Amino acid sequence: MTRRLRLAAAVAALALAASACESGQAAGDGDVDLPDPVVDTEVTTRIDYVAMGDSFSAGPFIGTMRTDPQGCARSKDNYPAFLADWLDVASYTDVTCSAATTRDLHAPMVMFDGNTTGPQVDALSAETDLVTLGIGGNDFGIYDSLIQCQRGPAVACPVEQLRADTGKVTGRVKDAVRRIARVAPDAKVLVVGYPDILPTEGTCRAVGVPAEVLAPVTEVADLLNASIRRGARAADASYVDMAAVSDGHDVCAKGRAWVNGPRFRAGIAAPFHPKINGMRAVATEVFRQVTGADPEEITEYAEPDPDVVVLNEG
User: Fold this and answer.
1) Phi and psi (nearest 5°) for 243?
2) pLDDT, tens digit (0-9, with 9 covering 90-100), for 236-274
3) Measuring CA to CA, which residue among 60, 180, 71 is closest to residue 132?
4) Start and end of every SGNH hydrolase-type esterase domain (predicted)?
5) How far is the C-alpha of 148 from the C-alpha of 158, rounded, in Å?
6) Do residues 290 and 39 make contact, with C-beta atoms less than 8 angstroms apart?
C-alpha cells in the first residue's frame, strides 16, 4: 500500500472506531431513546441520498470494492450502502474516499493510487434530500501525529499541538456543511462522528502499547469528536454521536469488536478500520436519526437497488 492509504489505515487505530450491529442486533445494548426524524419519510417516501466522507465512511477492503473510482477504496458494504438499502432511496450517490480531508469535499483529490477524483460536493444538486458526512480526522495531519504518539515513551507526543489542531476542525466542518447547503439547500445533513476505537481502560495485544501511552491518544480522539459536533451544530446540521453507542466494541473487544485489528485482511477491513458489522451499526444509528425508528430488518449485506445507484467515474 502507498503511504497515503497506510496513513488512513494505521491512524484510525489511534483516534476513531466504527460501530456495528452484531448478528442482526441493534446498535445499542438495550432500550434507546429514538430521536425525532430529520426526514419525514411519510412525506418524502423516496429520498435522493448523497454520502460524503473519508475512509471510515468508505470502508476500505470490506468485501467487494467499488471501482468508481478504484483509488477511493470504497466498499459496496459501507454504512452508506446499508442506509440506501434500508431507506429504499430513489437515488444513491457515494463519493466517500479513503484519506479524504475537508478540503477534498470542494477540491480535486489525489487518491492513494495517484489518480485524481473530483470534489465530493460535485455529487450534490438542488434535488438532494439527504447527505451524510463523516470527515475531519485527516485534517491538519492529526492522525499522522497520533501515529507518532502510539510508538511509546521514546517519542514525544505533541499533545498541545494536537489539542489546538482538533479545535480547528470545528471551523472546517462548519464550512463544509455550509458549502453543502449552498448546493443542496433543501437537503438534511447528518454529520457522523467517529466511534471509539481504543479501550477506555487498559490495553491489549491488538493495540500494542501500554495503557499509559493511550491516554493522550484517547483524549485527542474525544476532542476531535467534540470539535466535529460543534462544527455540525454551528451550521445547523444534525450530529450522529457514534462514540455514545460504541462502548465495549473497541479493538480490544475480541468477538464483540466492531473494528479490524492491526493486520491487513483483504475482504474484511483495512487495519484498525470498521468491519462489516461496524458499518451495520453506523447505518443503524444514522437510520434512527433519519426516521426516528429502528430499521425493520438489519440485513447481513447491503443491497441497494442497482437501478438507483449513481456511478462516479470521474
Assistant:
1) -60, -30
2) 999 999 988 988 888 898 889 998 877 888 999 998 889
3) 180
4) 51-280
5) 9
6) yes
Among 41, 38, 257, smallest CA distance to 132 is for: 38
Could you tell me which residues are beta bridge partners of residue 192?
240
Residue 106 CB: number of other CB atoms within 10 A? Answer: 15
Domain range list for the chain = 3-310
In one letter, which amino acid is 53?
Answer: G
- In angstroms, the CA 79 to CA 274 distance is 10
| pLDDT score of 238 | 97
Which residues does 154 contact at the CB level (< 8 Å), separation at least 6? Answer: none
The third-level CATH classification (topology) of the domain covering 3-310 is Rossmann fold (3.40.50)
Cα–Cα dist 199/205, whole Å: 12
Would you call 255 exposed, middle or buried from its count of C-beta atoms within 10 A (0-12, 13-18, 19+)?
exposed
Q: Supply φ then ψ for residue 50, to 5 degrees.
A: -125, 130
